[in-house]
Every structure is written in C-alpha cells, then in structure tokens.
UniProtKB/TrEMBL annotation:
GO terms for molecular function: sequence-specific DNA binding; transposase activity. Residues 14-196 form the Transposase IS200-like domain. It comes from the Bacteria. GO terms for biological process: DNA transposition. This is REP element-mobilizing transposase RayT. SUPFAM superfamilies: Transposase IS200-like.
C-alpha cells in the first residue's frame, strides 16, 4: 500500500517502508539548480516513454535514484548557502529532535548531520505493530514521513534561529526522500550515510564524528 502526496516535488510514500531522507539548510540548493536537475530527470523519463522500453517502471526508478544522487553530490560540494550546522550547538539540537521522534513516527536507523544538510534513514514499519490484523491504515493511526519531518524541521528551526539570533527560513522547504527496496540497498545507504564525514575529510573513522548515529539493530 502506498500514499502519495504533492508538494514542490513528487513523492511516493509506501506505508511501513524504509526511507533514506535528505533535508538541507535554506539556500543550500538554489531554485535554479533544483529546476535544472528536475528538468534533466524529466527529459530522461520522457525519452524512456518514447522508447517504450521493456522494464519501463524499473528504469524510471533508476532515474529517480540518479536524480537523488545528483542532489546529494550538489550538497556534498557545499557550493551554496549557509553552514550553520557546523556549529556543534546547532547540530546537537537537530540531532535531539531526530532522536525524539524515534519510536513514534519511525524507527531510527541512522543519521548524519553535515555542515549544510542532514541524512536520515528510518523505518516506518513500527507504526503498524499496534494495528489489528484487519485494521485499515488511516491518517488517524499512521503518521507519514513528511509529517514527522515537518515536526522535526519546525521545532529545530525555531530553536536554531533563537540560538543564532536570526529570523527567517532555516531549512529548505523541500526534503528529498528515497524508498529503500531491499536489504542490499539499505546496507549501501547506511554505509553512505555514516561515511559522509570520512568522505569529506573531517574524520578518519565515522565513529569519531559526533553527529553520526547508527542503530545497533542494523
């Protein structure tokens, strides 16, 4: 079962699924850059439709993965916007908000807080544990990922702005989520998430980065 919702970008929310999510500071991904990446993705999908290739849905899925990867590379380059998350006090309050949602909106598998963006890996199946076998999933008994993110981003933005003595948008309004399809993909994503500070040359071992977390359950 899946639930779709529309914001600035299309999202597909599978009930009880695992998600790899990235959200970033306001200005880290300028609108022109995002629109260029979206146009590139849409051109590729249009070409696939015109070819009417076999395995079309699989190829579209791969194209969405490539789009997500391009977003990641742009953020990792730190070419645009502020780097407020470099400040330990700001990074810690964001980490606290993420941990507070653990067990309610999701099971927290991993996170990594970098200078301008956050990686988050969560499993939403825990919400289904309290449902009866024949109980239908509704908005009253199931919280979608974007709803939990709204709480995390809203609360952390308020605290961070107060700490930084500033006003205005703190986070980019859009978040980027990717549905994790199998255990092999999950393993690769978890490794990518925790290795971000190592790849950036900030630490030699991911466990030395204070704003990285990996659940013992994975």
């Amino acid at each position: 079962m899946k639930i779709e919702y529309a914001r600035n970008l299309p999202h597909l929310q599978y009930v009880g699924a695992t998600f790899f999510i990235t959200f970033c500071l306001k200005g880290s991904l300028p609108a022109a850059v995002v629109q260029e990446l979206i146009a590139e993705r849409d051109r590729a999908i249009k070409l696939l439709k015109e070819k009417n290739a076999e395995g079309f849905s699989e190829e579209v899925y791969k194209e969405h993965k490539r789009y997500f990867a391009r977003i990641e590379r742009t953020l990792d380059a730190c070419q645009y916007g502020p780097d407020w998350l470099k400040q330990p006090s700001v990074a810690e309050l964001v980490a606290r908000r993420i941990r507070e949602a653990n067990g309610a909106g999701y099971e927290l598998l991993a996170y990594c807080i970098m200078s301008n963006h956050v990686h988050l890996v969560v499993n939403t199946a825990n919400q289904l544990d309290t449902l009866q076998p024949d109980e239908e999933v509704t908005s009253a008994n199931y919280r979608q990922v974007y709803q939990t993110l709204k709480v995390i981003k809203g609360g952390s933005a308020f605290e961070a702005n107060r700490l930084l003595d500033r006003k205005g948008a703190f986070w980019q309004s859009e978040s980027y989520d990717h549905y994790v399809r199998d255990s092999g993909e999950l393993k690769r994503i978890l490794n990518y998430t925790v290795q971000n500070p190592v790849k950036a040359g900030l630490v030699m071992d991911w466990q030395d980065w204070p704003f990285t977390y990996l659940s013992e359950r994975v």
